[in-house]
Design brief:
By secondary structure, the protein is mainly alpha-helical. The protein is built from 13 helices and four strands.
Length: 392
C-alpha cells in the first residue's frame, strides 16, 4: 500500500502531459504509419557475409516497421526506472548514451550491488543483430529484454509487479493505448518488450567518417586512418574477417581465448548456450561502431584501452588460455606480428568509426514521475549500481 501511495504521489507531481511522437526518427521514413530505415548502403548489391567486406558492401536486414508511437514509448521506458523492482535502475543506467550505450564498467552492477560476470555491450545498430547477449542465447530484441528485467541479479523485477506499476500510472495507461490502439488491454509484458525493441532498433550509427570515405568522400579519413584501415582489412591482421564492414561484425561466435580479469574463473560463454564444448570460451563478435566510447573491452572488460585490446591478437594464438583448458581457438586468430606503429594505426582507424549524430533525446520528465537519468547525471558515473539489457 505504501509503495502504491509513493508511486501515485510521484505521478501527481509530474504535471506536464507527455505525448508520443507521431513522426519517425531520423534515418527512417514513414510508410503506412510504420517506420523503415533508409540508408545509402541499401544501394549496394554486394551483401555482408560474402568475403571480408569491401567499402561498397551492403548491410544485413534490420528489424524495423514499428510505429512512431511504439518507438517513442520505448524511449520513455528505456530511461524510466519504473521497470526495476526498487525503481532505481533503468535500461539507460547500464546503456548510457554518452558511453556508446555501454556503462564504462568492465562488469556491470545490478540490483544486488555486486558486479556480474560480463559487461554491458553498446547498442548502436543493434536492430541488425541476429543474436543477442555475449553468449548469443537470445534471438530477438524482445527475448533479450525479458532476461534483465526479471533476473534477480539485474533489474530484479517480476512480471506481476511490473504490470501493476505500469497500470497504476495514468500516463502509461494513456501512452500504451496510443502506441497499441487496436488492443483492449495495451499494457502487457509483450508490449513492454516490443516497445523497447522498437526504440533500440532506432539507434542507428551509419554516418561516421569511415562511412563518408566508403561512400565516396575520400578526404574524410586522415593518412594515418587510411593506413590503419588497410592493415585492418589485410590478410595479415585479419580484423575484417570477424569485424566485417559495414556493420563491423560478422554476427558469428568466436573463440579467441580472452583472459578473464584477475581472480575470476573461466567464463565458458556460448558453450552453455549451445551445449557445444567446441564453443568453450566463445562469445558473440561485437560491432566496433563507436568503439572508442564503449570501453573497457572484451566480454568482462579485461582491457581498459583499445591499444591493449588490439595488441592481444598479436601475442600468440591461445597465449592466454588457462593451463589444462581445451579451447578450440578460432582459425582467424594467429600471430600477425604487427608492429607498434601498425597497432597505433589500427586504433586510429577505429576512431573513425564514431558517429553519434543520431543520439536520441533523453527525457527530462518521465511518465512514472520518477527521476530520469538526465536529471541525476548518472550517465557520467560508472560507479552507480546498474545493469540492463544485453549483458550476459
Amino acid at each position: 500500500m505504501y509503495r502504491l501511495l509513493v508511486l501515485l504521489l510521484l505521478i501527481a507531481a509530474n504535471a506536464q502531459a507527455i505525448e508520443l511522437k507521431q513522426s519517425c526518427p531520423p534515418s527512417f521514413e514513414e510508410r503506412e504509419g510504420r517506420c523503415y530505415l533508409v540508408s545509402r548502403y541499401q544501394f549496394f548489391d554486394s551483401m555482408q557475409g560474402k568475403g571480408v567486406g569491401g567499402t561498397h558492401t551492403g548491410l544485413p536486414p534490420i528489424r524495423d516497421g514499428f510505429s512512431p508511437a511504439q518507438i517513442d514509448l520505448g524511449r520513455y521506458l528505456f530511461f524510466d526506472p519504473i521497470l526495476s523492482r526498487d525503481h532505481n535502475l533503468s535500461c539507460a543506467n547500464c546503456h548510457q548514451p554518452q558511453r556508446g550505450f555501454s556503462d564504462g564498467m568492465g562488469r556491470s552492477v545490478g540490483a544486488t550491488g555486486e558486479p556480474v560476470k560480463r559487461g554491458a555491450p553498446g547498442l548502436w545498430n543493434v536492430g541488425f543483430l541476429r543474436r543477442l547477449f555475449w553468449d548469443a542465447r537470445a534471438t530477438s530484441l524482445e527475448e533479450q529484454a525479458r532476461g534483465p528485467l526479471f533476473d534477480p541479479k539485474e533489474m530484479a523485477n517480476t512480471p506481476k509487479q511490473l504490470l501493476e506499476d505500469l497500470s497504476n500510472s495514468p500516463e502509461y495507461e494513456q501512452l500504451f493505448a496510443t502506441a497499441f490502439p487496436e488492443q483492449d488491454r495495451a499494457i502487457s509484458i509483450s508490449n513492454v518488450t516490443l516497445a523497447l525493441a522498437a526504440f533500440q532498433s532506432s539507434l542507428i550509427s551509419l554516418n561516421s567518417r569511415y562511412d563518408q570515405y566508403a561512400l565516396g568522400y575520400h578526404q574524410a579519413l586522415s593518412e594515418q586512418e587510411i593506413k590503419g584501415m588497410n592493415v585492418y582489412r589485410s590478410f595479415v591482421a585479419r580484423c575484417a574477417e570477424c569485424h566485417t564492414p559495414p556493420l563491423f561484425t560478422n554476427q558469428q561466435i568466436a573463440v579467441i581465448g580472452t583472459p578473464e580479469p584477475e581472480g575470476l574463473p573461466l567464463d565458458i560463454g556460448a558453450e552453455a548456450t549451445f551445449d557445444a564444448p567446441k564453443l568453450k570460451g566463445g562469445f558473440k563478435v561485437p560491432s566496433l561502431r563507436n568503439i572508442v566510447n564503449s570501453g573497457p573491452y572484451m566480454h568482462s572488460g579485461r582491457f581498459d584501452n583499445l591499444e591493449d585490446a588490439v595488441r592481444f591478437y598479436t601475442q600468440g594464438r591461445g597465449h592466454a588460455v588457462p593451463e589444462g583448458v581445451d579451447m578450440q581457438i578460432h582459425w582467424h586468430i594467429w600471430e600477425p606480428n604487427l608492429s607498434d606503429q601498425e597497432i597505433t594505426d589500427i586504433v586510429a582507424f577505429l576512431g573513425a568509426l564514431t558517429d553519434e549524430s543520431l543520439l536520441p533525446e533523453i527525457p527530462t520528465i518521465l511518465p512514472s514521475g520518477l527521476m530520469s537519468l538526465a536529471s541525476t547525471n548518472q550517465s557520467l558515473s560508472p560507479n552507480a549500481n546498474h545493469k540492463e539489457s544485453e549483458h550476459e
